[in-house]
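Let us work through a complete example step by step.
Step 1: write down the sequence.
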Amino acid sequence: MDASRIKRDNERIKRKRKNEGTNRRTETLVKKAYELGKFDGVDVALTICKYGRYTTYRSRDHKAWPPSIEKIRTAYPLPKIILPEDIEGRL
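Step 2: predict the structure and record it as tokens.
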């Protein structure tokens, strides 16, 4: 085997491991959303986008769920908007 082929194979293996880790995290997140909806009686909508491919989960199968971003922003009481910076501040 030549060096360039070995390098390509190593890069492919690294990408595969990274994707497997991301897929496991996605599965865990969907499972947690399911549990939150089922056991705690919370309505959950989850959207994950990676490389233009979406994974979605809804705890209710209803046309009006999930609500649009505009509907959420104008709801009362006002929504709690959490950004990545807020989470990073907690770590």
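Step 3: interpret the result. The CA atoms of residues 48 and 54 lie 6 Å apart.
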